[in-house]
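User: Just a sanity check before I run the rest of the batch. Below are the structure tokens for the first item. I only need the designed sequence back.
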């Protein structure tokens, strides 16, 4: 991310509420935060140390770039922050281990006599959910108010089965429940009460707020300050719940919200990704060669190109305006997904508000980030296009690179790294501990790694087909568009041999190095292709090669470390994993354990005296 000029980008920050996202040099998300004013909040991280604490200072030193998403309110920023933290689990955020976050109001509309309940989770259970909200107390007060206003039941009785079996509860006698359990209220009459409650929760707050304001004023006038305070608190709760936010959708559906901003020469398309009803991220795309094309045509071209290459297609795609061939594109995407896909233009409600927010972010990107996006796309998507041209292939999205690491044949390991659209996809990285090869035979090791990876993918695909599960849930199901081998002809031929054995057709390219272990070209179709060392393609190939090498070495180093500990301690009778850890905690190194007396060893709580004597004897029997 060397092209990201932090000082320049700080000047472009808007004075608006939103969420900011900090990335490190590997483009990993380190921290997600919210701000009522992005300009002031993000800039504060880069001022001289003002007592933020060592952890924040450590994070700031690692920031390579940041991005932000503008929202309409601090509440929306807070909820979006929560969604993003749950999605990415950043290293420097305090993470909540359970799923209890913001509260919802749940209306059990699937019941014949529905209830209005407090809920911490939003499930696909045919109930209607409203929220999330930031104040649990306000939600509880509002539920209590709704139940009292409309005389709704709060009991757990199964109706209509239990009608007339028991006497009505105290709420009925306090005139706070219409008591459907007695049979005095018909299902239709009760439904009318629920419809009014739903109307309130859908945003028609004016009737209740006016009523509470009047009651508060009347109570004050009669000097009934206790009731006046009660109405004041209820009014405050209603107003807190009335705050609208668009970051979570109670339908819990997957959808993409697409907006566009354009000028005479350029256009930026912003995509908000909503998964399981939560806004979890966004991406923006720079469109070229737009000149005088109308926005509808730009959108149509984007939708066709984007969803032709993306691995996941949501159930809904929302656009700011109709596009040409919308029905045909809808049918095409339905075929690709294997289930119904809807393309629509929202005109009102939450979806339309979210579309406006996406458009606002697209406009900000167009006006402030244009040059940076061009540079970023040049080093990622642009580099991939250069590789396509160099090799004469098309549709290159996913690349997998492999490497082998060992020391004189000890602990042979393999690594697999994945790049999609020119960026590392670390969630798909894999490590392999070689099982069938002893000694330093890189070709045999590579044959095993590739065979295991591809066979796993074939088996996983078959299992998902049998169980009728979407392929997005498999980790190995997606095969690469190009395999990159860390070497020339020999490594490429091993890979081609494995592909031939398994009946799979995937282009294979070798990354050929010179005598100084630097990439000098690509080996493809039995020809070594020279590559311009100043090109973005060369820089991307080098990054991929370095990443595969780093990943393999790290894994090998961890295995060596474990083997060293095991060889020294695990051969001692009475020493298992728990006692080994206790010894290493107490003495820090094998050498310290070797130099300890039997009494010092027995001072470790987990080590009995007889075991301490065995450890001492083990290290001193040949002395």
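Assistant: Here's the designed sequence for the first item:
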């Amino acid at each position: 991310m060397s092209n990201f000029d932090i000082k320049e980008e700080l000047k472009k920050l808007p004075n608006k509420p939103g969420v900011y996202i900090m990335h490190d040099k590997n483009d990993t998300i380190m921290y997600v935060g919210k701000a009522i004013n992005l300009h002031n909040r993000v800039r504060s991280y880069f001022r001289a140390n003002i007592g933020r604490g060592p952890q924040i200072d450590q994070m700031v030193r690692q920031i390579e770039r940041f991005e932000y998403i503008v929202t309409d309110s601090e509440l929306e920023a807070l909820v979006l922050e929560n969604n993003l933290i749950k999605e990415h689990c950043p290293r420097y955020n305090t993470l909540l281990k359970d799923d209890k976050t913001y509260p919802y109001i749940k209306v059990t509309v699937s019941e014949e006599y529905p209830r209005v309940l407090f809920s911490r989770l939003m499930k696909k259970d045919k109930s209607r959910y409203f929220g999330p909200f930031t104040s649990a107390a306000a939600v509880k007060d509002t539920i209590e108010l709704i139940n009292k206003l409309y005389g709704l039941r709060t009991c757990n009785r199964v109706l209509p089965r239990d009608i007339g079996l028991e006497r009505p509860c105290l709420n009925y006698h306090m005139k706070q429940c219409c008591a459907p359990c007695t049979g005095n209220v018909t299902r239709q009459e009760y439904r009318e009460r629920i419809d009014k409650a739903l109307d309130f929760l859908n945003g028609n707050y004016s009737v209740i707020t006016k009523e509470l304001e009047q009651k508060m004023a009347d109570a004050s006038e009669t000097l009934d300050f206790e009731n006046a305070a009660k109405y004041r608190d209820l009014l405050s709760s209603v107003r807190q719940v009335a705050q609208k936010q668009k970051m979570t959708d109670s339908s819990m559906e997957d959808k993409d919200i697409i907006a566009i901003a354009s000028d005479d020469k350029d256009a930026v398309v912003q995509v908000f990704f909503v998964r399981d009803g939560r806004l979890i991220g966004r991406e923006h795309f720079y469109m070229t060669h737009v000149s005088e094309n109308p926005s509808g045509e730009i959108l149509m071209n984007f939708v066709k190109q984007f969803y032709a290459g993306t691995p996941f297609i949501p159930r809904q795609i929302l656009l700011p305006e109709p596009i040409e061939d919308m029905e045909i594109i809808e049918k095409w995407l339905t075929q690709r997904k294997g289930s119904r896909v809807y393309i629509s233009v929202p005109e009102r409600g939450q979806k339309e508000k979210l579309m406006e927010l996406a458009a606002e972010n697209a406009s900000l990107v167009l006006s402030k980030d244009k040059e940076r996006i061009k540079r970023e796309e040049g080093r990622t998507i642009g580099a991939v296009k250069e590789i396509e041209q160099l090799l004469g292939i098309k549709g290159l999205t996913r690349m997998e690179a492999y490497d082998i690491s060992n020391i004189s044949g000890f602990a042979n390991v393999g690594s697999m790294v994945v790049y999609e659209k020119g960026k590392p996809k670390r969630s798909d990285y894999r490590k392999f501990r070689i099982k069938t090869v002893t000694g330093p035979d890189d070709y045999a090791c590579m044959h095993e790694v590739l065979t295991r990876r591809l066979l796993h993918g074939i088996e996983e695909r078959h299992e998902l087909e049998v169980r009728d599960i979407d392929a997005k849930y498999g980790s190995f199901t997606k095969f690469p568009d190009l395999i990159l081998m860390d070497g020339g002809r020999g490594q490429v031929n091993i890979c081609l041999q494995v592909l031939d054995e398994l009946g799979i057709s995937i282009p294979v390219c070798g990354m050929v190095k010179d005598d100084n272990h630097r990439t000098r070209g690509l080996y493809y179709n039995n020809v070594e292709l020279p590559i311009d060392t100043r090109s973005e393609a060369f820089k991307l190939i080098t990054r991929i090669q370095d990443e595969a090498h780093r990943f393999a070495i790290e894994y090998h180093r961890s295995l060596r470390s474990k083997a060293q500990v095991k060889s020294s301690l695990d051969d001692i009778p009475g020493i298992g994993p728990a006692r080994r850890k206790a010894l290493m905690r107490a003495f820090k190194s094998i050498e310290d354990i070797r130099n300890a007396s039997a009494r010092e060893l027995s001072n470790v709580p987990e080590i009995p005296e007889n075991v301490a004597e065995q450890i001492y004897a083990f290290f001193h029997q040949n002395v």
